[in-house]
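Handout for the seminar on molecular recognition.
Each group receives one record of this type.
Step one: identify the two inputs.
Step two: read the structure output and locate the region that could contact DOR.
Step three: write two sentences on what you found, then compare them with the reference statements printed after the record.
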Amino acid sequence: MSIVVKGGLVFLGSKFEKKDILIEDDRIVAIGTDLKAEKSLDASGMLVLPGLIDPHVHLREPGETYKEDFVTGSRAAIAGGFTTVIDMPNNKLPTITKARYDEKIELAKKAKCDILFHFGGTDDNFDEVKKTNPQSMKIYLGETTGRMFLLDPSSLEKHFALFPKDRPIVLHISDHSEDEEKNLAKTYDTLQKTLILAKKYDRRIHIAHVSTKKEMQIAAKYEKCTTEIAPHHLFLSTKDQKRLGPFAKVYPPLRSEQQRLMLWSVLEKVDCIATDHAPHPIEDKEAGAAGFAGLETSLALMLKGCNDDLLDKIWLVDRMSANVAHIFGLPKKGKIQKGNLADIILVDPKKEWTVVGSELETKCHWSPFDGMKLKGKVHTVIKSGKVVYEDYEFV
Ligand code: DOR
Ligand code: ZN
């Protein structure tokens, strides 16, 4: 069946323009005016964007499906405007062998969106990396949830040497010891050392969840280093700890209000916005688990930044779609253009809504932004040419 998305303000990479989009099967076949098809979707008043891509989610399957699974996690993704997400390897049984990687691909077939996987690097899985030949790797140099091993410096160097140079190795750099001054000093030191090593091998690296201005400034010194920032580090600080109690715990930790504002001042340098969607049910949070769900609130939060004149919408959409596709090597995604996969979202920029944790698609059913009033919501999602979400509901 052919579909035409009519009369919306379409994101065309460097500008928004009023256009129609014609879709046949799973592809975009034309962008123009007065296009016709069997089914017509009225997009007037809507922003028409490429399906968003999130390079950093924890969907917990297999192993901890009581926290999230590929169905609930991908429903949260679609409701938040993401048609592709890249899942982290810190599962209960981490994704560090080809068998576990292949198992995830199989399990994710039931998902509502595309799910790709970062492959975890350890001290002794060089052969598994080679056998699997993944698109990207994830290496933990700081404490995290789950059982990923912190690497020996010599293993880090060996992965840097062996993994194809033009594919990103994603790094969890930040240290989380209690004392802020100490953990920041350690984080900056680890980052400096990692950059030196990356330069030595002329390799691409990607720094996960940058949470301070200084980290961004250090990372920006190496042109093959890309970065991401999570919305919660832009919108929450230690000021919120009183209100949130154990629910404020996240790695990297929420920073001081001063650090938060300084992060906004370097936001322009960042390459991607990543949710770091890390769901834990209420009982687990009360018992000390770190992490927030983010898939369903991130776009609206970032649009708030646009509405408050803190950032530009064209810049933002690029950092949540085309640039992510570029960094992680996802052809035919991230851009509304002829021949590309028809992953398209319609966003009503005027729709006002309130975050209600218990009503979210994510299995954890709470959000650190519970009660917050936001403006801008995903109205319709077309995934590979099929309308999967319409009028704020799954079809
Ligand atoms: O807060 C976090 N939660 N930080 C991490 O590094 C891991 C994540 C999780 O998996 O829960
Ligand atoms: Zn994470």
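Reference statements: The domain at 51-327 is CATH 3.20.20.140 (TIM Barrel). The mean pLDDT is 96.
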